[in-house]
Amino acid sequence: MTSPTQAPPSHRDPAPTDATGQGADTAPADDPALVAARTRIAEIDRTLLDLLAERRAMSRRIAEHKLATGTAVRNTRVEREGLAALIRRGRELGLEAPFITRLFQTVIEDSVQLQTATLHAARNAEAGRSEHRVAVLGGPGSYSHQAAEKYVARRGGTLVPVSGRSFADVARAVGDGAADYALLPIENTTSGSINEVYDLLYDTDLHIIGEITHRIDHALLAKDAGLTPEAISVLYVHPQVYAQCSHFLARLGDARIVYCDSTADAMGRVVQGDDPHAAAIGSGNSGALFDLHAIVSDLANQKQNHTRFIVVGPKPTQVPGQVDAKTSVIFVTGQEAGALVNALAAMRDNRINMVKLESRPIPGKPWAERFYLDVAGNLNDPRLDRALDQMRSHTRRMKVLGCYPADSVQPVDMTLAAAIDTGDGDAHAP
Questions:
Q1: Rounded to the nearest 10 degrees, what angle do helices 97-123 and 32-69 cross at?
Q2: Using an 8 Å Cβ cutoff, are 154 and 111 in contact?
Q3: What is the Cα–Cα distance from 218 to 294, expressed in whole angstroms?
Q4: pLDDT 10s digits, 219-266
Q5: Helix H or strand E encompassing 221
Q6: Which domains does the chain possess?
């Protein structure tokens, strides 16, 4: 590591703020008007939480109706009309359209994901279990554990985590029956693909049964809230996290870097050690579990830092037709000219949208590659079934890894002008 030539902006003391997120005021803390306003804000926030919980319950009820009628999860017309009505109402209340749009797009996304999980669980007895034994990298506090909590919460069950020290351990727990399924990180918006997981998919008999995207909030964590980054003597960090925070770490100084199995492992080593100048990089939210303080936040090279996790199980899952689905395959082509183009032409000819294409070297075979492909589509769709048959004829080996519900929710096309011009109505977002 090199000594910093200039302290990064995140080292500077931030402007003081209060619980409302606004700048700190100069009024005395016991000012009656200030206390009353903050008390009222807390009451409003609790009411908002109650209403969001009630809204989720209504979303589940809608999902049950869609399950009985075979209706698609998404109805973009209803979403667009409902959002337009909310924007108009917001204007009447002095609330800006971008704020309303951003807020309710998040609420709509949650509703779509919840309904998707509900329909998927109803179609698969395994997905609807009350207890979910889920293998994850690291223990409580790790990002894998956080993603597992979110995934299980949508399905209405209880998480029973099975911790592993490596991706191979996590996959093995499913194969040995110690876990019902596992979460594995496969790509990150900052550091890219996680190659070891791609290789595991090829070498094991596991099937992809789901996916979930999780926001990653790296923070520098230490026992002493007053520790400065320049004073850190040793930093515990997972290799993937190091890659995602490389710009910040290049300015850190002469701290010794110790790679760990997971972010939970990194935080645990700080707690268990006796070095007051030791630090770890992990989730700012999880630091409290270890009684650690975030001395610097937002460390990732890219501020929009997300990891896509795949959910793998011992057998395939069935995806209802009302649900947006993905299908993943791994294949190997010949080395003749045009082999890859010929294989992928099957997707083009059958109008199947390719979402991701990744190449990986084949161990022991220099310059030979295998390819990982994600497409938008359900295996029950005759077009995709036909495309895969045609593709198989142009490959030396092809393995369907699984068909599973897509986690991403594309926001409705909602420009401000369209919202303003939409007529009055009583439509509501799903």
A1: 40
A2: no
A3: 9
A4: 999 999 999 999 999 999 999 999 999 999 988 878 999 999 999 999
A5: strand 218-222
A6: 34-123 (1.20.59.10), 218-296 (3.40.190.10), 318-411 (3.30.70.260)
